Amino acid sequence: MENKLTRSLYAVPYLLWIILFVVAPILLVLYYSFFNIEGQLSLSNYEKFFTPVYLKMIFSSFWYAFLITAISLAVAYPAAYLLTKTTHKQLWLLLIITPSWINLLLKAYAFLGIFGTYGAANNFLEMVGIGSKQILFTDFSFVFVSVYIFIPFMILPIFNSLNDLNPTLLDAANDLGASRWTTFRRVIFPLTIDGVKSGCQVVFIPALSLFMLTRLIAGNRVITLGTAIEQHFLVTEDWGMGSMISVFLMITMVLIMMLTGSRKRGA
Amino acid sequence: MENVPIIQFKHVTKLYDNDPPVLKDVSFEIERGKFYTLLGPSGCGKTTILRLIAGFTEASEGEILFNGNKINHVPANKRQVNTVFQDYALFPHLNVFENVAFGLRIKKMKAPAIESKVKEALNFVNLQGYENREIREMSGGQRQRVAIARAIVNEPEVILLDEPLSALDLKLRTEMQYELRELQRRLGITFIFVTHDQEEALAMSDEIFVLNKGKIQQSGTPIDIYDEPINQFVADFIGESNIVKGKMIEDYLVEFVGRQFECVDQGLDKNEPVEIVIRPEDLEITSTEHGKLKVKVDSLLFRGVHYEISCYDQDGNEWLVHSTKKAAVGTEIGLHFDPEAIHVMRLGETEEEFDRRLEAYADVDNDGE
């Protein structure tokens, strides 16, 4: 009996934390989303959300999040595959992960320097004879920097699932007549799909609500739902609308998690 | 065509980087439709031979022929062989049917043909009705059968089996030994089986290749290898043996542990130093007066079918005896054996020399009759 008591005592800090910092904020956000800008209880935020202005914003958020995820995946999968083939794979992995330890803001400012009018990128373009270009404050630079930031998070789960793959399975496929491509399509990819799914989750969901990069790198040319939330809370002080968008994002994320949820298939 | 060996190794050497060679100048022939076993301790190169035949790795030197054609650089997916792997290597994301159908689907076979072939293969290994099971729902023995079905469904000319029974418990292993042997007879195709278990090799094979340190030590039928081991390694590795140093006095007379014994070996040089092998089951316990050897019982181990009795003679040689009779520890007993039980091994004899000597010896025997 004592055991049971002490065990419930251990749970107290955890429960307090969850209630104060997870449950309460979510309820608050939900609560605020039902108040319009004059502070009256109404559903106007939800009505406003389905107007063309916001629908366009939703579309652009999803489009950029999709682009960032797709490009990250296209770069990360082959990179993770090559990593598993190297002799010091843990060291190489560490090197790829290291940039994610640097502060995001710092990295963003570094790119401001690189992509700026007199930055390294333009110097290079001039040297090869293409000439100076406007790189900063375009959707290209936004996607590029986002992909750069998210790639470690995409590589890690894919690397882990590739690393867990039993190499004899590849011999077996080969033995049964499969070419390298068929082996990839029929054995390697299906067996690492869980890693791909969790990689996409950790990239797509935050990419949906990016806001700092949209201003710093894209110069507000790309407006996402994240930007909208920031603007509503800090500039227009329409907390209700900001909360409403947050609620929408949360629901979307839950849906994405459910859709890409990994069904475990053991050996 | 029928007379061409299905697989031939000609002076094959395999090196990995700068390590000592895994295989050293190995040559052999594999005939069609027989059950072969590559037997040896771990690291002897037996799995390397299998991987060379399967095409997972390439020979550093020498030629590998399949049906008389050189296949050194033919990739694994183009070879007429299929492998049953040690850990089965079944695809965990596919069910039993799809695992077995894997090779057929790659050959772009039509769906009804695949269906009937997979069914037939599963029947062959007694797994009818398991088509829709997931691999994780199958027991070790069942997975083993799926792996075999997946190999035979492709109708290869040779099936390679890499220690496929090592993960099974003893009873199931014995059962699968019978089944594999039976399967090979029914299919009539060549099986090349790799194992480190000498009993398994003796029970299943038409031919055994005993390997050690990247070389074939001896090849022959199970009975040949057991009765006439070429050297100490083979004698020790195949079954248990008592090995002592001796001297060939003349034909049919050999000296060891300070006494001369009648034997059936001949054709060796006079006073040639030799090694003597006597199998533990060929030693009989008798009284000290009747025994050819006088030994003291050191320990006694009950093994189920027999007692394993360890004795020492006055020179300190250990004599292992397998007997259904018990002997008290510490007592002196006599050991009796027939002249046929003595097997004489020449030191450092190669397999060719050994075979030539055995043949000459057989001829003399026939003339005598």
From TrEMBL, chain A:
<keyword id="KW-1133">Transmembrane helix</keyword>
<keyword id="KW-0472">Membrane</keyword>
<dbReference type="InterPro" id="IPR000515">
    <property type="entry name" value="MetI-like"/>
</dbReference>
<keyword id="KW-1003">Cell membrane</keyword>
<dbReference type="GO" id="GO:0005886">
    <property type="term" value="C:plasma membrane"/>
</dbReference>
<feature type="transmembrane region" description="Helical">
    <location>
        <begin position="12"/>
        <end position="34"/>
    </location>
</feature>
<feature type="transmembrane region" description="Helical">
    <location>
        <begin position="54"/>
        <end position="79"/>
    </location>
</feature>
<feature type="domain" description="ABC transmembrane type-1">
    <location>
        <begin position="58"/>
        <end position="260"/>
    </location>
</feature>
<dbReference type="InterPro" id="IPR035906">
    <property type="entry name" value="MetI-like_sf"/>
</dbReference>
<feature type="transmembrane region" description="Helical">
    <location>
        <begin position="202"/>
        <end position="219"/>
    </location>
</feature>
<protein>
    <submittedName>
        <fullName>ABC transporter permease</fullName>
    </submittedName>
</protein>
<feature type="transmembrane region" description="Helical">
    <location>
        <begin position="239"/>
        <end position="259"/>
    </location>
</feature>
<feature type="transmembrane region" description="Helical">
    <location>
        <begin position="135"/>
        <end position="159"/>
    </location>
</feature>
<keyword id="KW-0813">Transport</keyword>
<feature type="transmembrane region" description="Helical">
    <location>
        <begin position="91"/>
        <end position="115"/>
    </location>
</feature>
<keyword id="KW-0812">Transmembrane</keyword>
<comment type="similarity">
    <text>Belongs to the binding-protein-dependent transport system permease family. CysTW subfamily.</text>
</comment>
<dbReference type="Pfam" id="PF00528">
    <property type="entry name" value="BPD_transp_1"/>
</dbReference>
<dbReference type="GO" id="GO:0055085">
    <property type="term" value="P:transmembrane transport"/>
</dbReference>
From TrEMBL, chain B:
<dbReference type="Pfam" id="PF08402">
    <property type="entry name" value="TOBE_2"/>
</dbReference>
<comment type="function">
    <text>Part of the ABC transporter complex PotABCD involved in spermidine/putrescine import. Responsible for energy coupling to the transport system.</text>
</comment>
<keyword id="KW-0547">Nucleotide-binding</keyword>
<keyword id="KW-1003">Cell membrane</keyword>
<dbReference type="InterPro" id="IPR005893">
    <property type="entry name" value="PotA-like"/>
</dbReference>
<dbReference type="GO" id="GO:0016887">
    <property type="term" value="F:ATP hydrolysis activity"/>
</dbReference>
<dbReference type="InterPro" id="IPR050093">
    <property type="entry name" value="ABC_SmlMolc_Importer"/>
</dbReference>
<comment type="similarity">
    <text>Belongs to the ABC transporter superfamily. Spermidine/putrescine importer (TC 3.A.1.11.1) family.</text>
</comment>
<dbReference type="InterPro" id="IPR027417">
    <property type="entry name" value="P-loop_NTPase"/>
</dbReference>
<comment type="subunit">
    <text>The complex is composed of two ATP-binding proteins (PotA), two transmembrane proteins (PotB and PotC) and a solute-binding protein (PotD).</text>
</comment>
<dbReference type="GO" id="GO:0015594">
    <property type="term" value="F:ABC-type putrescine transporter activity"/>
</dbReference>
<dbReference type="Pfam" id="PF00005">
    <property type="entry name" value="ABC_tran"/>
</dbReference>
<dbReference type="InterPro" id="IPR003593">
    <property type="entry name" value="AAA+_ATPase"/>
</dbReference>
<dbReference type="InterPro" id="IPR017879">
    <property type="entry name" value="PotA_ATP-bd"/>
</dbReference>
<keyword id="KW-0813">Transport</keyword>
<dbReference type="GO" id="GO:0043190">
    <property type="term" value="C:ATP-binding cassette (ABC) transporter complex"/>
</dbReference>
<keyword id="KW-0067">ATP-binding</keyword>
<dbReference type="InterPro" id="IPR008995">
    <property type="entry name" value="Mo/tungstate-bd_C_term_dom"/>
</dbReference>
<keyword id="KW-1278">Translocase</keyword>
<dbReference type="InterPro" id="IPR003439">
    <property type="entry name" value="ABC_transporter-like_ATP-bd"/>
</dbReference>
<dbReference type="InterPro" id="IPR017871">
    <property type="entry name" value="ABC_transporter-like_CS"/>
</dbReference>
<feature type="domain" description="ABC transporter">
    <location>
        <begin position="7"/>
        <end position="238"/>
    </location>
</feature>
